[in-house]
Amino acid sequence: MNAAVLVLVASALFIWPDDTAARRFGRPHEPARKWPRSLGPIATAAGGVSTAVLVGGVAGVTLGAMVTATGWWAIRRARRPRAPTTDIATRLRLAGTLDLLAACLRAGLPVPSALDAVAGTAPPAAAEALRSTAGHLALGSRPEEAW
């Protein structure tokens, strides 16, 4: 039992999270660790082996294989580059459209007219929604239904 605990503690020290999780959750920036890239898979394999030894038998081997496979999957997923869902140009264009809408409303235009006026500057999906809402409001729909 003591050897298994020692192996688990050693594995936990090897797979200690790096700086990526801290940045993702908004903690202050700390210098990144310079660990070898192969340390994650090695630590994952060590965790799987220690799980197999701790549990023992066929169930231990099966559980150890599952722990190792899950660890490798998590490491590969964490290292995969993520494509942004919307590009920065679309976001800036939408922000400009909303600023223009605020200016139109502040100038005293009715809401349907303001929506029609700014729909041309919006990205295609937002322009469609603005035109649809303007049409519903112009026909006399209640705002809850139109939006």
Describe the structure.
This protein folds into two domains: 2-79, no CATH class; 88-146, no CATH class. α1 (2-14) packs antiparallel against α3 (39-55), α3 packs antiparallel against α4 and α6 (111-119) runs antiparallel to α7. It is mainly α and 147 residues long. It has eight helices and no strands. The mean pLDDT is 81. It has helices at 2-14, 19-24, 39-55, 57-79, 88-107, 111-119, 124-138, 143-146.
Question: Which key features would you list for this structure?
Answer:
2 domains; 147 residues
Distance separating the two termini: 63 Å
SS element count, helices? 8
Q: What is the global morphology? A: elongated
Structural class computed from helices and strand pairing? mainly alpha
Beta strand count: 0
Strand content: under 5%
Task: Classify the helix fraction into a percent range.
Answer: over 70%
For the biggest sheet, the summary is: none
Low-confidence segments: none
Radius of gyration, Cα only, in angstroms? 28 Å
- Compute the number of structural domains: 2
Mean pLDDT: 81
Taken in chain order, the helices and strands follow as HHHHHHHH
What's the topology here?
Layout: H1 2-14, H2 19-24, H3 39-55, H4 57-79, H5 88-107, H6 111-119, H7 124-138, H8 143-146
Helix pairs in contact: 1-3, 3-4, 5-6, 6-7
Brief synopsis:
The protein has 147 residues and is mainly α.
